[in-house]
Amino acid sequence: MKKKYVLIILASIILGVLIGSMIKDLKSVKGLNISKDDIDKREIKMMSKSIKKLQNEKVDLDKEKNILREKYTDIDEIKKMENMKEVLSYTDIKGKGIIITIDSLNEDIGNIANTIDYNKILINLVNELKINGGEFISINGQRINQYSAIILAGSHININSTPIAQPYEIKVIGDTDKLYSYISKENNYIDNIIMNYPMKVEHKVEDSINMPKIEIPNKLRYIREG
């Protein structure tokens, strides 16, 4: 398409030169004293028609050039809008990534929401995942973006004003090489959770992860620590 766009511009330039040259020749012909008036008149008339035809073609080419210019502008704007929608979680996302599940170590431990909130475990893990290749993240079906709030509400965690309960399933889509490397290496934040809290953390690699779009409008300015 870009090649076509360049050809149209070149054609417009060439047509402009031809029209200028023919008009100049026409003026020269009109200034000559030729005995065969009828022949001259017919030639001038034909030349005038040719010039008009070239002018019309140039107009058409200019119109097509403008249409293409507007089309490319629209495509760029559309891409920006689609990217923004993805970032703000307004579109469904599907791709490769990892799934991390956090739950209490056993039934005797019970509800871990207070521990999760007090130690900012979900917030810290989200930040770790973003640093290590995570582009799109959801927790128990709630999409995470810069407007999301992860806070304690009573005995449970609220995300995007929606209550969620353990186990906490964190889905991550993004740079799979970085994500795989992160969950495979020692001394990452996941290991820290396992060593310091009565929780079990499991993770697995998934070739196809689905993340539904966010169901409520974004109102907050950033991910807020409760």
Question: What's a concise summary of this model?
Answer:
The protein has 226 residues and is of the alpha+beta class. The protein has six helices and nine strands. The chain folds into two domains: 2-87; 93-225, Protein of unknown function DUF881 (Alpha-Beta Plaits, 2-Layer Sandwich).
Molecular structure report:
The chain is α+β, with helices and mostly antiparallel strands. It folds into 2 domains: 2-87; 93-225, Alpha-Beta Plaits (2-Layer Sandwich), CATH 3.30.70.1880. Helix content is 50%, strand content 24%. The protein contains 6 helices and 9 strands; from the N terminus they run H-H-E-H-H-E-E-E-E-E-E-H-H-E-E. It has helices at 2-30, 37-87, 113-118, 121-131, 176-184, 189-196, and strands at residues 93-104, 134-139, 142-144, 149-153, 156-159, 162-164, 168-174, 199-211, 224-225. Strands 3-2-7-1-8 form a 5-stranded antiparallel β-sheet, with helices on one face. Strand 2 and strand 3 (142-144) form a beta hairpin. Helix 1 (2-30) runs antiparallel to helix 2 (37-87). The longest helix is centred in the N-terminal third of the chain and has 51 residues, at 37-87. Residues 220-226 have low confidence and may be disordered.
